[in-house]
Structure formats: structure tokens, C-alpha cells
Amino acid sequence: MAIVQFTRFKSDKPEEMIKTAKQAKAIFEKHGAEFLRLSRFHTGTWAGEFLIATRYSSWEVYGKVQEALAKDEAFAKLYAHTATCAELTGRNIAIGIDL
Questions:
Q1: Beta strand pairing status for 3-10 and 35-40?
Q2: Domain boundaries, the chain
Q3: Half-sphere exposure of 61 (CA within 13 A, CB side)
Q4: CATH placement of domain 3-95
Q5: 13-55, pLDDT tens digit by residue?
Q6: CA 83 distance to own-chain centroid
Q7: Is 47 helix (H, G, I), strand (E, B) or coil?
Q8: Which residues contact 87 (CB under 8 A, 6 or more apart)?
Q9: In what order do the strands lie in the sheet with 3-10?
Q10: Under a CB-based contact definition with an 8 Å cutoff, are residues 32 and 68 in contact?
């Protein structure tokens, strides 16, 4: 059962969002996330916003990654920097259903 966290940001600095997401990808995957992906909405209510999706193999792994991020100085600096170029607009967690 995969756990996927979706985080949306508004930003008028796409190059900075891409640079920041690349750095975040390395940090998240180092701590155990299966992946971090960046997308941008082109239609609908969130058109123009960015979506970061991170995936974890289980709740246990999700918890371990969150705990590690909370102690990671590089992530704290990156998160603080993100707040200077983007606005967090939403966060959701989805639980995969094995079919």
C-alpha cells in the first residue's frame, strides 16, 4: 500500500521551483522516499500552480522519512528558502489501494 503526499505551491519563479525541487528530491530520496516529482497544472482551478508528489512504500517508511526531514539541516534551509519564492497552497495524503 503506497502512501503519496501531494503538496501544491504558487510561484511566479518557475526556474527557482525546478532548482529547489531538484534539491528536495535528493534529500527526500536519501531518507527513503521512493520518489519526488514536480509537475505544473495547466488547466483547472490550480492552473499555474506546482505540484510536488512524494511516494513512500508504507506508513512506517513515511514516518521515518518525516522524522529524518525534521532533523535534516539542509532540508530546513531549503524549506525556508522555498517560502521566499513560493506560497504553500495545499497538502494532501492519498493511500494506494492494491487491486
A1: unpaired
A2: 3-95
A3: 18
A4: 3.30.70.100
A5: 999 999 999 999 999 999 999 999 999 999 999 999 999 999 9
A6: 13
A7: coil
A8: 9, 10, 11
A9: 35-40, 50-56, 3-10, 87-95
A10: yes
